[in-house]
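Quick one - first record:
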Amino acid sequence: MRLTQHTVRLLLAEPLRISRSVMTARDAVVLSVEHEGLTGHGEAVSSVFQKLDTPTLQLLAVRAGERLARFSAPETALHALRVGELTVPGTPAAVTAAVEAALLDLVGKRTATAVHRFLGSRVAPRSATARTISLISPGRAAVQARELAEAGFSVIKIKAGERDHDADLDRVRAVRAAAPSARLLLDPNGAWSAGQARTLLPLFAELGVEAVEQPLAPGDPEALARLAARSPLPVIADEDAVTHEDARRLAGRVHGINVKLAKCGGVHAALRIAALIKGSGTDLMLGCLTASTLGIAPAVHIADRARWTDLDGHLLLAHDPWTGIGGDDGFVTATGRPGLGVRPRTEAGVPAGVDNGSGADACAGADDGSGAVTRSGADSRAGAGSGTPADARAAVRSAAS
């Protein structure tokens, strides 16, 4: 097998302002794994919060390619990833998730099977996704909420965390008035103290907010659990519930856990968390980072497991280099196409070599946003191993279970 990479600059349609930062763009490092004429793709995005800059992601992609080259087939590599033998200890979850996505995409194309079927869902998941409104004025928030409701969005997530709490309350009031039928989620991104949260949560409950994500600064999950026990709103852990162990600590003590593949390590890790919290009184939320359709797609294939779906990262972009999961009408959908079911939008600047399942090379002349072309490759030295489609399906079911 051979892994190549290229980097694409993702520009947001408008700045995304949250309580701790403002974002206008980020880089996406696309990992493409080629084997026997087919190519699978995954994506890792740069993140200041996760301390993952673009050069680091590119270097880690090279190392992942070197280790992938030792495997004779994507099915065996996928199993090795599951048991911790593919990536070196300390590999960031975002890289592991991207490698897993590329392997799942490739195995799906080899067997003409959509990824969600490997993962136990016979029907392609279709889920109403939240759409985020950032820290903007109440007037602008009202305009956006009205447009979203008219487009078909039934769930709206409102950012909070202003120093002036009245501004947050006014923003929610404006959204509620503009979209009276919408389900409202609130996300302060850890901006409140415990005392502030105890004061504010009843006020937001009166405005019809359905649930609140990570109201307290991360780092004290016990404080979050204590708040959840007395909160008039469901409290969803986000930054305090990244790993399986984090989820185990909070299962049954908060109302929800927001699982993001780029933070937990991919689809398999997310399904382990979902299995852990099932029946505990803690529900699953599927979230995402701002990313392209390619980066969001793996989570869409397990969206039927979640009570709350927040997979709108690709909808925040000025130009999405990929297509295939929808979302503009308020619903993300996993199609029946093989693999992840996504394909490049060549007109949006993705290199012409990126394929849609036909096996073309995926790293021809991609710009990383600074004018440099990034490229890495590792040729397979372990020999080819194909097997039958049935063998491949059995292997990936085992790897994804």
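second record:
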Amino acid sequence: MTLGLPPAWGVQYSAYLPTEAAAGAVVDELAELRHRLIAVRAHDHFRSDPSNFCYGKPSMDPELEGWWQVFSLAVYSGHDRLALDPFLRSERILVAGIARSHGGFAQGGAEGHAVTLEHHFTRVGLLHERAAAEVPLPDLLPVELGPPAAGPQWSCSGVGRSDEVVQAVVAVAERMYGGAEAIPDVADWLLDEEFAFGEPYESTGEFLGDLADAVAHQGTCTDSTVEAVPFLAALIRDAGVPGGTRVVLLGDLLRLAVTGRATAASLADRITALGNVWEEPAADCMTRRAIAREMPVLLANWEVESDAARFVLAALAAAVASDGDPLVTGLQLAALPAPVGTARADIVALVEELLHGDHAGLRSALDRLAAWRLGIVEQSQNPHVALRDLALSVLPDLVMSDVGPAVYR
């Protein structure tokens, strides 16, 4: 390491290819990019190695039987990690494109100090090793532009005190399910005696996090999630639940509504490479339909809700409503505080295109967002990702990062 410079940064890339020949072609291209180490192994190679822990165990991904994996380590030096960020994004796009061009897909990876990653790189199947090789960097690294102004402050109350929120949520659970024989899981734990006499929550955010996890553990929809949707909708309509908490719960519904679409976007290359047709998981589809059934009563409060709640409600309607749905044709998005030139205006434009727009309008809205929300760039460069899937997959984070400071202030 040159004195005064940060330690060299390493990135390990991985890709799946359908044949050994395709894997070899990818190796050649990565070598031309000056990746330092490149190894090729048959998928599940270590399941056939008697000395390995995985020997004889069932495959973790049987769908890839007969495929090949390429692992490479690229080294970048002379700059700290933050300065490298835009360039590394372009590198990920480049490697994904190489894998795609040979009928495969990029998946996974790791980052860290180059010396550490090189030491731990698994050399089984090593085909290429060039000591001290580094990926050449441009004289001037690309610089990311900051986002536009966020927009005016939302007129929304906070999430409220944790004890008051817990009391209000339990009260709704008791009204809906108290004395019932079959209680949905999301309400069962709230009415349990252990919960009632347990330790109080230190913050409302902590409680709402537990509630969200009870609805969809680690964000995964199940039959229990479908059962929980009417309860979440009742909480959002309840006057005893603070306005900020209702906004957070609307955000939870928004994330659940796009679960299937987000999965389709993230797996688009894999689905295409395997020749599959995407089918939305039943629980994701049923959850989205359950939310759609609650939309009439949720939108009935449009005029009396805070502007922050309307913002999330509009996004939720875009996630579940079909084109031309009379429930959403009259939504007054223009009334939201989103002045032209702000980041919020770009988000509202995306919602508008999802509700009423066409392919060209949706592409334009995503391009505007990608100029400052750079996480969108990688997927927008993927020809296999459907525009609507991409738009819906990024919508919850865009919306909730905007309203979050208002509800948790």
